[in-house]
Amino acid sequence: MTAAASAFDIFLGGSLLAVAACVLFLPRRATAVVLFLVFGVLLAIVWARLDAPDIALAEAILGGGVTGALLIDAVAVGRRAADERSEGPAGAARWLVPIAGGAAGAVIAVVLAAAVLALDTPGIRLTDDVRDNIATTGVEHPVTAVLLNFRSYDTLLEVAVLAIAAIGVLGLRRDAPAWSDAWTKAAPIAIDGLVRVLTPVIVLLAGWLLVAGTTRPGGAFQAGALAGAGLILLYLGGRTGVIPVGRGLTPALMLGLAGFVGVAFGTALGGDGWLVLDVAWAGSVIIAIEVVVTLSIAAGLAVIFVANREPVDTETAGGGPTDVSGEDAR
Amino acid sequence: MTRLDLALLTAIVLVAMGVTSLLLTSDLVRRIVALNVASGGVMMLFLGLAYRADPAAPDPVPHALVLTGIVIMVAVTGLGLGLARRVESVAEQSGDPPPGEADH
């Protein structure tokens, strides 16, 4: 039914597991985080081979890129916590811990495998339902149709979760000094050049992904993720003004949620029900929602990144924002 | 073994390894990393099942769910790292044992 695994597939799967094992079980934080970047890229390649280009794209940008940036920042800046503190109880119980953990992992693997095997092949098929009804959605790409029409509640709540997480991270920072340019150092000239070259490319790609989403892989998620990554890059390149966390960004953060909720109320009051889009104008409304959601995802990711940064030269004992080597020496 | 079997098997092992590491490590940042690895496995399982339904045209519904999940995971990671940093700085100031040991 499906293609036999090629040597490349086996190599890819083996590498994925080996890198994951290193991420999870090697002692140092810094090693784990850097290998996590490799893990994200490998995961995206495997997913692309499962015919999921939308997801692979999002994983490459978000799982590898933005999460990687967050984690690297977390281990690189002002981390005084010891890497290898003694774990768990002392004495006789010490050897029990890995055995219990391993047993728990084995149980999870067995239960999951049994569940997968117990599912009927080909399982529940929603593909046909989506294909039969896609003409009513206003878009042509099935994933976009599911995200913004069939299951738009999911997307609405997801935008809400991102906004709440960003506000939560901002809340954790209330003890910090005022948001200012002092939070980042002047960028090295190579980074500055890179930012100058990449920014127009990112803007172009994000715009294309946003529009492409209605007919082919792409859409608000990938565009927003790419735009957010672009903002983070600009910020790290010394242009801290692009993320005016104090004022301008909170409206941008809430824009997607507000727009989405507005559409929900509009359709509930004047249309056929909550988020039921009429085919006559569904396409235009979906594009409009995608534009505001893209802006909010970009703003949310940028806020989460910036709010998680340690202020340079204030409470950190040593090490600049890019000083990963300092972590290894400790 | 087909490509699908391989993907499902890899996904299951990833989930199990991620959860095991989540249980075993006491370092807050590494717990967040472990959660990310486990969620990558869960998402891959979803994608594998979508692919199994019809390799020529994978099921778009699990794809949409995974796409949503990826964004949620980044949000959770960001908030988690913020909380972890806060916990560590508070523990340091008060001279308490590091958070990994305090909860035993």
Describe the protein in words.
Chain A: The chain crosses the membrane at residues 6-26, 33-50, 56-75, 95-119, 155-172, 193-213, 219-237, 249-269, 281-307. Chain A: It is a multi-pass membrane protein. Chain A: Belongs to the CPA3 antiporters (TC 2.A.63) subunit B family. The complex is a heterodimer of chains A (330) and B (104). With 330 residues, chain A is mainly alpha-helical. Chain A has two domains: 10-82 and 95-120, no CATH class; 130-311, no CATH class. Helix content of chain A is 67%, strand content 0%. Chain A contains twelve helices and no strands. Chain A has helices at 7-25, 29-49, 53-76, 96-118, 127-133, 142-150, 152-172, 189-212, 220-236, 249-270, 279-307, 324-329. In chain A, helix 6 packs across helix 7 (152-172). Residues 313-330 of chain A have low confidence and may be disordered. By secondary structure, chain B is an all-alpha fold. Chain B has one domain (3-93): Orthogonal Bundle (Helix Hairpins). The relative contact order of chain B is 0.13. In chain B, helix 2 packs antiparallel against helix 3 (60-94). At the A-B interface, helix 1, helix 2, helix 3, helix 4 and helix 5 of A face helix 1, helix 2 and helix 3 of B.
What is the CA-CA span between the terminal residues of chain B? 44 Å
| Derived structural class of chain B | mainly alpha
Overall CATH architecture of chain B:
Orthogonal Bundle
Major beta sheet of chain B, specifics? none
Spans of chain A with pLDDT under 50 lasting ≥5 residues? 313-330
Strand content of chain B: under 5%
Q: Compute the gyration radius of chain A: what is it? A: 23 Å
Short synopsis of the structure:
The complex is a heterodimer of chains A (330) and B (104). Chain A is mainly α and 330 residues long.
In terms of topology, how is this protein built?
The complex is a heterodimer of chains A (330) and B (104).
Chain A: H1 7-25, H2 29-49, H3 53-76, H4 96-118, H5 127-133, H6 142-150, H7 152-172, H8 189-212, H9 220-236, H10 249-270, H11 279-307, H12 324-329
Chain B: H1 3-24, H2 28-53, H3 60-94, H4 99-102
Helix pairs in contact in B: 1-2, 2-3
Family (chain A): Belongs to the CPA3 antiporters (TC 2.A.63) subunit B family.
Main location (chain A): membrane
Keywords (chain A): Cell membrane, Membrane, Transmembrane, Transmembrane helix
